[in-house]
Amino acid sequence: MKIAFYGSSLLSSYWNGAATYYRGMLSELSRRGYSITFYEPDAFDRQKHRDIEPPEWAEVKVYPATEEAMRAVVAEAARADVVVKASGVGVFDNELLEGVMAASRPDAIRIFWDVDAPATLAELRDSTDHPLRRTLPVLDFVLTYGGGPPVIEAYEGFGARRCIPIYNALDPSTHHPVPADERFRADLSFLGNRLPDREARVEQFFLEPAARLPNRSFLIGGNGWETKGMPSNVRHIGHVYTRDHNAFNTSPLAVLNIARDSMATTGYSPATRVFEAAGAGACLITDAWIGLELFLKEGEEVLVARDGKDVADHVEVLNPERAKAIGDAARRRIMAEHTYARRGAEVDVILREAASRKRERSVA
Question: Using CA atoms, how far apart are residues 345 and 205, in angstroms rounded to an integer?
Answer without folding.
Answer: 36
